[in-house]
Amino acid sequence: MKEARKITACAECGLLVDIPLHLGMGQYRCPRCHGLLYRRGQKFSHIIIMATAALTLFIPLTFLPVLDLDIMGQESSATLFKAFWVVYEDGYYFIALLALFSGLLAPALMLTLLLAILLPIHFGRRPAWIRHAYRLYETMREWGMAEVYLISIIVSMVKLHGMGSLRIGPGFYIFILFFLLFYIAAVWFNPDDIWIDDALEK
Amino acid sequence: MRWRSDIDAGVQLCLHCRKLHPLERQRCDRCGSHLFQRKPHAVIKTFSLALSALLLLIPANLLPMMVVHSLVGNDAGTIMDGVIYFLEHGEAWIGIVIFIASVFVPFFKVTTLFYLLFIVYFRLRDKAHGGLRLYRIIHFIGKWSMLDIFVVALMVGVVQFKNLATIVTGPAAVAFMLAVVATMFATEAFDTRLMFDHETQRSTHG
Fold first, then answer.
1. Which one of A93, A107, B156, B164 is least enclosed by Cβ atoms within 10 Å?
2. CA nearest A146: which of A95, A194, A191, A180?
3. Where are the domains of chain A?
């Protein structure tokens, strides 16, 4: 018997392609532009564990210092949030808010949305607001910049260590761990999976 | 081999959940997003946003990113001053990272966006594949231009010693951030399928 197929279009070049209706574990790419058509994600339960772990790590990030600087006996430290607060107090509201949003809030929001989407599906339900949560998640994906913030901490360390004695706070290590878990959860999650009818059985 | 696109078939793809719909439908019945065959006003939106980014990059590179107040006086540094500082102090790799993220990438993005618009406007179908490859690159590296903004925020956040030394955000940060945001929106507004369309349209009309 012939395998059931469905027609879809490539989002990057507009080509019509037919792919199997029941997609296996493989990847499907557009024959013309090699854009990704479909890639099977990991089990939802695994993603839920990763997202929960990452969100838990977000709590200590709000108060643990990332950098400690000591100049001639005077000490000053910064947490990930305090950095933006000082910029905000300087009057650069736009920079502070957008950087705060893209560096910290968007990743945390993405994880929350991920749980909001996957938990009901995992327990066999599909409430109507999932589609709104999912659309918001897709938008956040463009604006979450935790990895850029992480690298910028390293650049700041190099810039600062000439000014005084610099200590790396525990917040830095937790941020690395947070980012790794966040990244794994985001990579494992393939949004297409929640629309497939057998998603409930996964 | 002749390719058949969604335009030939008269269907439209939901860019959010990737379901195919007939042209009459306004909203996706699966995820609820607005439907369109090609992103609306893609060319004019991308053009105006890329142009504003280009203009904003001028003050972003000429004005100081941050101002250091210390016992030895005030020191206002532009992006390039930071790069040169690292190159001269033996930390060349950090200088190179900052140069690529803050100077090269924004200009590369704007140039690429204009090139993509050029491909669409002059219907250079044979350049479409290369154009798409460039688009994927600028889409991927887009957010890395924000690196300098985060560095400024962290430096300002840490160096707050009332009389010894303080760092204050400089005016270039605003221009730089707006430029980065503009290029990100411009990349979003562009529709890569436009570059591939002319061949299929020609083949359907004869």
1. A93
2. A180
3. 1-40, 42-201
Which pLDDT score, from 0 to 100, does residue B1 have? 55
**pLDDT at residue number B204:** 44
Q: Which residues pair with B160 in a beta bridge?
A: B166
Does position A5 have pLDDT exceeding 80, yes or no?
no
**Rounded average pLDDT per 10-residue block, chain B, 206 residues:** 79 86 86 87 95 95 86 80 83 83 90 95 88 93 86 85 80 91 93 82 44
Task: Among 3.90.1200, 1.20.140, 3.40.50, 3.30.950, name the CATH number for the domain at A42-201.
Answer: 1.20.140
Amino acid at A32: R
Cβ–Cβ < 8 Å for A48, A112: no
Distance CA B54, CA B48 (A): 10
Q: Hey, what amino acid is at B114?
A: F
Q: How many residues does chain A have?
A: 202
Average pLDDT, chain A: 85
A155/B30 CB distance under 8 A: no
Q: Classify the phi-psi angles of B106: left when phi > 0, otherwise alpha if psi is within -120 to 50, otherwise beta.
A: alpha
- Show the beta-strand stretches assigned E in A55-109: 65-71, 74-79
Partners of B98 on chain A (C-beta within 8 Å) are: 155
Chain B residue with minimal CA distance to A167? B158
Mean pLDDT of A193-202: 56
In this complex, do A13 and B193 lie within 8 Å of one another by their Cβ atoms? yes
- Select from B18, B86, B94 the Cβ nearest to the Cβ of A11: B18
Residue A77: closest C-alpha in chain B: B158
User: Across the interface, do B161 and A71 touch by the CB < 8 Å criterion?
Assistant: yes
Interface test with B, best of A5, A7, A16, A172 (most B CBs within 10 A): A16
Between B50 and A26, the higher pLDDT residue: B50
* Residue whose structure tokens are 């060319």: B43
Average pLDDT over residues A117-124: 88
A148 and B151 within 8 Å at the Cβ level: the answer is: no
| Nearest residue to B177 via CA among B48, B59, B47 | B59
In the prediction, which pLDDT does B130 show? 92
**Residue the block writes with tokens 């590179």:** B61
Question: Which band of pLDDT confidence, cut at 50, 70 and 90, is reported for residue A128?
Answer: confident
If we measure between CA atoms, which residue out of B48, B151, B47 comes closest to residue B102?
Answer: B151
